[in-house]
Design brief:
single chain, two-stranded antiparallel ribbon, 6 helices, 75% helix, elongated
Length: 195
C-alpha cells in the first residue's frame, strides 16, 4: 500500500478493515453527493420563489398544515401540534429501538465492549441491521476467514508431504541392505561392520 508516496506493509487483518472502510466511504460519499444534489435542486426552487431552503421548508409545512386543516376540518394549531408530536414520537421510537438493540446485544454478548465492535459492524447497523445480527455476521465472517486460512495451510502441508513422498520414491539411492531388505539386522555385512 502506498502512503504519502511511500510503500508500506500492512498486516492482512488490518488490510481487510481498511478495504471495508474504503467501501463504506464510497457508499457514504455517494449518499452525501445525492443528498447535496437534491438540496441544490431545492435551493434553486427556493431561490426562484424568493426563499432560502429553510424558509421554503417552513412555507411548505404551512401549506401542508392548511391543506390538512381544511381536509380534516381541524384548526391549523391542532394540525401543527399533531405534526410536532409525530416528530417527537418518531425520535422517541428510534431511541427506544436503539436502546432495545443495545440491551439485546449486552444480553447476547456480555463480555464484548463497545470499542471491540468494528466499524464494519457499525456500518451494517447504520444500514438498518440490528446490532446483534450485524455483530454475529462479522464474527461468522471472521471465523470463515480463519478457517480458510487454516485450510490453505493444511492444503500446503499436504502438498509438501505428497511432493516429499514422490521425491523419496524417485530417489536413485535407496537405504537397502545387501540382501535387498530395509532391515539392517538381516544384513551380514552391516552386522559385521557394526559389531
Amino acid at each position: 500500500m502506498h502512503e504519502n508516496k511511500k510503500l508500506k506493509d500492512i498486516p492482512r487483518d488490518e488490510l481487510k478493515t481498511l478495504v471495508q472502510k474504503g467501501l463504506n466511504h464510497d457508499r457514504v460519499t455517494e449518499k452525501l453527493t445525492n443528498a447535496n444534489t437534491e438540496l441544490e435542486g431545492l435551493g434553486e426552487v427556493a431561490k426562484m420563489l424568493g426563499y432560502d431552503t429553510k424558509e421554503l421548508k417552513e412555507a411548505l409545512l404551512e401549506q401542508a398544515f392548511l391543506a390538512r386543516s381544511e381536509k380534516d376540518n381541524l384548526s391549523i394549531e391542532t394540525v401543527r401540534k399533531d405534526y410536532e408530536l409525530s416528530q417527537k414520537e418518531k425520535v422517541s421510537s428510534e431511541t427506544k429501538k436503539q436502546q432495545s438493540d443495545m440491551v439485546k446485544f449486552v444480553e447476547a454478548y456480555p463480555n464484548v465492549k463497545g470499542e471491540d465492535i468494528t466499524p464494519e459492524t457499525w456500518a451494517k447497523v447504520a444500514d438498518g441491521l440490528d446490532l446483534v445480527t450485524a455483530y454475529k455476521m462479522d464474527q461468522q465472517s471472521n471465523q470463515l476467514d480463519e478457517m480458510k486460512t487454516k485450510l490453505a495451510t493444511y492444503e500446503k502441508q499436504a502438498k509438501v508431504a505428497k511432493q516429499n513422498e514422490k521425491a523419496k520414491a524417485k530417489s536413485p539411492v535407496k537405504a537397502t541392505t545387501s540382501n535387498g531388505s530395509d532391515d539392517a539386522s538381516n544384513d551380514d555385512f552391516l552386522q559385521g561392520l557394526m559389531g
